[in-house]
């Protein structure tokens, strides 16, 4: 599968849908797309990682840097990571959990939940 980032808007939210492997080779592309969105003055961002089937430490680094960038702009960052068991759950969700950084992110199961203004209960 080819790495792909597509963008969409949902009201005040910018949505980047990411598909493929998020690794050392592809993570700079996602980093640039995030910076482009912020440079356009859009500080509420949803990263849909539902179709990311592999994520290494450089991908995690991009997510952490995105969080820091969005927070510095008083924006909001939400991740879409489908729930599921160890076999069918999101790879990115498992990687973030294993590294102990999942708690840093607001995680939602789908786009509708992510752009809803009601906070997700824990």
Automatic annotation (TrEMBL):
Domain of life: Bacteria
One GO MF term attached to the UniProt entry: anti-sigma factor antagonist activity
Matching PROSITE patterns: STAS (PS50801)
Domain STAS, residue spans: 15-118
Pfam families (UniProt xref): STAS
Family from the record: Belongs to the anti-sigma-factor antagonist family.
Protein name: Anti-sigma factor antagonist
């Amino acid at each position: 599968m080819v790495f792909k980032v597509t963008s969409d808007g949902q009201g005040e939210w910018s949505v980047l849908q990411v598909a493929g492997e998020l690794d050392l080779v592809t993570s700079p592309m996602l980093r640039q797309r995030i910076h482009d969105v912020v440079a356009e003055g859009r500080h509420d961002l949803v990263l849909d990682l539902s179709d990311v089937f592999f994520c290494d430490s450089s991908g995690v680094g991009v997510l952490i840097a995105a969080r820091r960038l969005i927070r510095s702009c008083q924006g909001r960052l939400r991740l879409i990571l489908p729930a599921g068991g160890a076999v069918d759950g999101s790879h990115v969700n498992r990687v973030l959990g294993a590294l102990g950084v999942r708690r840093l992110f607001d995680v939602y199961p789908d786009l509708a939940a992510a752009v809803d203004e009601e906070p997700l209960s824990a």
